[in-house]
Amino acid sequence: MLAIANLLVTMAVYMTIPQQINLLQSMRFTALQQGCVMGVFGLGLFVFGPYINYFVERYPRKRVGLLALLLLIADMGCCYYVGQTPYVADFGVQLALRFLLGVTFGMFQMVLLSTLVIDSVQSFVRTEANHHAVWFGRIAMALGPFAGLWALQHVNVAHVAFLPIAFLPIALSVLAYILVALVGFPFKTPAEQVGFVSFDRFFLPEGSLLFIMLFAVTTIAGMLLTIPMTVSVYGLLLAGFLLALLSERFVFANADLKSEAITGLTSMLAALLISYVRHTELQGLISATLFGLGLGLIGSRFLLFFIKLSRHCQRGTSQSSFFLGWESGISCGLFLGLSVFQGMYHSMLLIAIIWIGLLLALYNFFVHNWYTKHRNR
Question: How far apart are CA 8 and CA 81, in angstroms?
């Protein structure tokens, strides 16, 4: 149920992206203002990170997660109000609401992934539980916008223009709240001496290079999310994620450790090259599938790398580090795509091709060797 809750909440957050971009553009915000509003989400993710360990050690951990989720729902309710009364939706209001969405989403995800998922299963299946929970969230990256755009086209509701940005995310988040509330956790005696500020359950310093690499990869994905896309493109991005899930089960189960990440980066590079030279809609759909395949493979492999880099009792920290690297990269990409490359999609694709090519070389000749020397499991 926790994995499904992760799916629903992440769907809710990603569902707002294309619709909020359209709202910002319709309100005549400058490109820089649009980029700041969408990018500030990534800064909000880190706000409660240093205090997560204190909260879950001093207070009932499920209540901390539910409180974060309740605050996220409240923020989405404010987005709904602002969406229906655009005269109050100035730059400062939009910036604050998006920042608070990042704050609440980051707090909930770090509590969920670093504590609730881990404490809900026995020790020998925790890696599998982490893998499943994060995969549900990864699929939501495509499923959320897909559901939002589909609702715009097929659901006849008053004020439907604001439905995907507000009402549906609220409904999904409320359902996630119910699912988390239904999960029982064994009693845990509060720790007596816990530092108010720490890296525990927040950031793994030993994985800093991997964090930077993941951040750089997902920045490209965030840039591409600023390009107007159809329901079909998001559907095939989802298909690419599912292909990645099948590939890691049947193709890379006994393959060389480096092969999965190299294949993922190569698939992303091929997708970008096809998009850069494409002349038909079919090429665009193939590109979306390949990009989903590549991003899914990278996500799976890097999640395991973070776990392997962590020491005993640092599993939760590794999960939060992966989450922050992934989501902050997406937010950085949204900022760059809107503030720097808006309307210059051909130039953005060219930069992304060069970027992913450099990352492929960096991983192949340096990062992987660094990882094999520093892993602890």
Answer: 21
